[in-house]
Amino acid sequence: MINYTEKIPNNVDLGRDRVLQRALEHWQPAYMGWWYDMGPNESHNYEVYLRTATSVEPDGWAQFGYVKMPEYRWGIFLQPRDEKREVNFGIHKGQAAWQEVPGEYRSTLRRVIVTQGDTEPASVEQQRMLGSSCPSMYDLRNIFQVNVEEGRHLWAMVYLLHRYFGRDGREEAESLLARRSGDADNPRILGAFNEPTPDWLAFYMFTFFTDRDGKFQLCALAESGFDPLARTCRFMLTEEAHHMFVGETGIGRIIQRTCEVMKENKVEDPSDVRALGVIDLPTIQKYLNFHYSVTLDLYGSDVSSNAANYFTSGLKGRFRETKLEDDHVLADAEYPVSEVVGGKILTKQVPALTALNERLRDDYIEEIADGVGRWQRVIDNVGIPFRLTLPHKGFHRAIGNFAGHFVSPDGEVLSEEAWKKHEFEWLPSSKDYAYVQSLMSGRVVEPGKFANWIAPPARGINSQALNFEYVRFN
Ligand SMILES: [Fe+2]
Ligand SMILES: [Fe+2]
């Protein structure tokens, strides 16, 4: 069970380590300062129908009730320890899983934890203004749920930094509160976490595409030979599922509403669709292209010696590592990666160890494709002849083998000039953003009401009715 009588709720017996407890209690007010500054705008007095974890067991981690967000019980929750757990891959395969940081991997591991931790507050910062344009009380509650849990994920990483990395760790924990998404001088570490999330279509795309990158990174870290990291990530993954649900159903509901309006009014032309106050399907495709491509970059270079080192040293595994049937060492294995040679996209085999970023990206793409297939079924069910597609992996990439090349969504290598000519057929233009934002000029918060551009969800949160008062504004 989680001890809620302590200042910092936890299931790591924090009270027994007074030095650590004091260090974290010192960080806590700084965290609250960050939340007041960078958490959801004007939300501090709202009472929100949120879930809070009271234990890491299946029946305890989602307790629902009204909470003022600054009073949310952010804390430290790890999956219980498995005494028999081993390092399951790399050169240390078969050793007992590490309960302390191996000295030779200290700085690498710290970097991995900081990079993961940095994404959590970043997304809260990116989304902080969206409450003022929410399409319903239900959706407002959902974004707040995502935000408080990203805050908790920051706690999860900061616990590891404080507990296992001494002074360096404490300094990193402070820096995590100092960087700001999109800031020119002190930005967040990864590119996609410095992009604005200017509207709710972007928010749902972000939670579908970019939170799912989070899922895959956490899955890889949940395999780590460093046991506290693995156990932390396991528990974070239970929360992450809801974030992707918000994204997938959010986009699904927008598509459904658009298709219904098209069908009812017998219109197909995007400008006619827009005249009816819903988001035309080509604009949804452009947002998809944008969020997909910037998220693919998060996996890093196709061929990477860092990725090989993380794996070989047992720090970061593959997606579902222990379920894979191979030697988990990969000394002789190969893996295909793409590259652009003479205006053509070619595939070549490289040592599998160096291609682990690409492999994780491919695992991700497979899951993304399933989700896009489910959106397509919404369109097909209404009987509209429109196909949503994932662009080619090389489209609009800034990192890896495709960086610097101009690849069309169909996978054709173009000249820069030719690509630029079509850019805004493929990616949202300022006019597209302006149109989407014009639909979201105010918030819809009457219980049970939904903005015109989105369909209601199939069901409410925690079996509550759709007209339940998910947020009390006080
Ligand atoms: Fe997260
Ligand atoms: Fe998330």
Question: Can you give a write-up of this model?
Answer:
With 474 residues, the protein is mostly helical. It has twelve helices and seven strands. The strands form three sheets. A three-stranded antiparallel β-sheet has the order 2-1-7. A two-stranded antiparallel sheet has the order 3-4. A hairpin with a 5-residue loop joins β5 (406-407) and β6 (413-414). The longest helix has 39 residues, at 227-265. The chain starts with 17 loop residues before the first helix and ends with a strand. Bound molecules: fe (ii) ion (2 copies). The site of one fe (ii) ion has 5 residues, from α5 and α6. One fe (ii) ion binds next to α5 and α6.
Set down the secondary structure blueprint.
Elements: H1 18-38, E1 47-52, E2 63-68, H2 106-126, H3 137-164, H4 166-178, H5 200-221, H6 227-265, H7 270-275, H8 281-297, H9 305-312, E3 334-341, E4 344-351, H10 356-382, E5 406-407, E6 413-414, H11 416-426, H12 430-438, E7 471-472
Helix pairs in contact: 1-3, 1-4, 2-3, 2-4, 3-4, 3-6, 5-6, 5-8, 5-10, 6-10
The protein binds fe (ii) ion (2 copies).
Extended strand count: 7
Helix/strand-derived category reads: mainly alpha
| Sheet having the most strands | 3 strands, antiparallel
Taking the alpha carbons of the first and last residues, their distance comes to 32 Å
